[in-house]
Design goal:
Order of helices and strands: HHHHHHHHHHHHHHHHHHH
Radius of gyration: 21 Å
Number of helices: 19
GO molecular function, one term: DNA binding
Mean pLDDT: 91
Protein name: XRE family transcriptional regulator
Low-confidence stretches: none
Organism: Streptomyces sp. R44
Largest sheet: none
Length: 360
């Protein structure tokens, strides 16, 4: 059974940023890592994908980067970059068995999604704000952006994968993740296809509370919001999330995983059903929600409800990190002043704002 090929462009670019953050030249870096210059150049260009490096050597490389003084925030994105490269490779040159597609074998995280957006649309990840330089003279690229023909091929084959996965036995995880990533295609025809495909799944949005299709419904609603239609997400919050204990726990568990608060990769959506909320740190989730708040219609309502639910589940959080609580209080205050949230979300933001100010 042949596995999908691995690309290395995104991880190679992140490795280059790590080297430049020290700063070192390729020659100096190759010497410090005890590899030849051709290997260093191959890693950074993607010709020799980092994901193909043996696990022990890759671990040693990460540790050596830290010793040499590389920016920890950049080094910490290597895993997500390699994940993105695997998804790109599997989409450009799909295997016969779609069950081998990386979107079918693990739930991807926000960092991976940001790496893919970087490669597909040239949008630098927020985690690298201020760390990515602008256009340069010479051949060095300013982003790991795929060539236009590769981007077109990626999305075309991703849409085909989503269609195949929709068939019986095709794989729920693969279908929902492929369909969500298809919403990254900015072309008008592609957006129309994605919107049609997403609206075809609106039946899952009609279910109340938790169901086996809950994760698919959430993904469908958020993808439609990305395309400019926030109403399905507002309906999802009202109908399939608010007031249902299992759904509320699933939402918090998913956010913790999405924001990198769950250390182990998950092969399916079952981890969301943990009503005890174990496996992640509430302060880490609060920090991720605070710093990653999205103000687009629909998204801000999901953030507001999630913050409200997190503080309801862990009322001690403001005292655990007063500086973080004060930061969030300022942010929620601005959102309330700007009036960007719906009625429910505004009430929840008001509650969160009051709790944060009262307990810090």
């Amino acid at each position: 059974m042949v596995k999908p090929p691995v690309r290395g462009t995104v991880a190679g670019f992140v490795l280059r940023l790590a080297r430049e953050s020290i700063p070192r030249t390729q020659v100096s870096m190759a010497e410090a890592l005890a590899v030849d210059l051709g290997t260093m150049q191959g890693w950074e260009s993607g010709r020799r994908p980092l994901a193909n490096v043996k696990a022990g050597a890759l671990l040693a490389l990460r540790r050596r980067l830290g010793v040499l003084g590389a920016d920890p925030a950049v080094v910490g994105l290597l895993d997500a970059a390699m994940d993105a490269d695997q998804i790109i490779g599997a989409s450009l040159e799909p295997a016969d068995d779609i069950g081998l597609h990386p979107l079918a074998t693990w739930v991807h995280t926000r960092d991976t999604a940001h790496m893919l957006a970087w490669a597909l649309n040239g949008v630098a990840p927020p985690a690298l704000t201020g760390r990515v330089t602008g256009p340069r003279r010479g051949p060095a690229a300013a982003a790991p952006l795929l060539a236009s023909e590769d981007r077109a091929l990626f999305f075309d084959r991703l849409r085909r994968t989503a269609e195949v996965a929709r068939r019986p036995g095709g794989g729920t995880l693969l279908h929902r993740q492929a369909l969500y990533l298809a919403s990254y295609d900015r072309g008008p025809e592609a957006a129309a296809w994605t919107a049609l495909a997403l609206h075809a799944r609106r039946g899952v949005l009609a279910r109340r509370g938790w169901s086996e299709h809950w994760a698919e419904a959430r993904s469908t609603a958020t993808a439609l919001a990305r395309l400019g239609d926030p109403q399905p997400l507002l309906d999802f919050i009202e109908r399939s999330l608010a007031g249902d204990d299992t759904a509320e726990a699933a939402n918090l568990n998913y956010w913790a995983y999405w924001l990198g608060g769950v250390r182990l990769p998950q092969s399916d959506d079952q981890f969301m059903r943990d009503r005890q909320l174990t496996g992640w740190d509430p302060v880490t989730l609060l920090r991720g929600l605070t710093h990653g708040m999205h103000q687009a219609p629909g998204y801000v309502d999901l953030y507001a409800h999630t913050l409200w639910a997190l503080l309801a589940a862990h009322p001690w959080l403001p005292q655990a990190s007063p500086p973080l609580a004060r930061d969030l209080a300022q942010r929620t205050g601005r959102l309330l002043d700007e009036g960007v949230a719906s009625g429910r979300a505004r009430h929840e933001l008001d509650t969160v704002h009051y709790v944060l100010r009262d307990r810090t």
